[in-house]
Design goal:
alpha+beta
């Protein structure tokens, strides 16, 4: 299940966020097209204004909770570099 439409991707993520569903790594890859990866001892993966938080395991895969941050929140956490 690979999402073709960008709007469809956001709708799936919004639904997961609203329902507080935990998604597996493979489910997230199917939705956004990339595997969420983190550095050692880091439990967060950010893609655009979507934040994925490690919440344990579902079977042999990592379980992720989906959060959404506004642009202003994203910039305060990840400030842009000025040129």
């Amino acid at each position: 299940m690979i999402m073709e439409s960008p709007i469809e991707k956001h709708q799936w993520l919004e639904q997961a966020k609203e329902n507080q569903w935990l998604l597996t790594t493979s489910e997230i890859k199917a939705i956004i097209g990339v595997r969420p990866k983190t550095k050692k001892n880091v439990n967060i993966f950010v893609r655009g204004n979507w934040v994925f938080l490690k919440k344990g395991k579902i079977g042999n895969e990592i379980a992720w909770m989906v959060k959404k941050v506004s642009l202003s929140e994203t910039e305060s956490v990840f400030p842009r570099t000025r040129i």
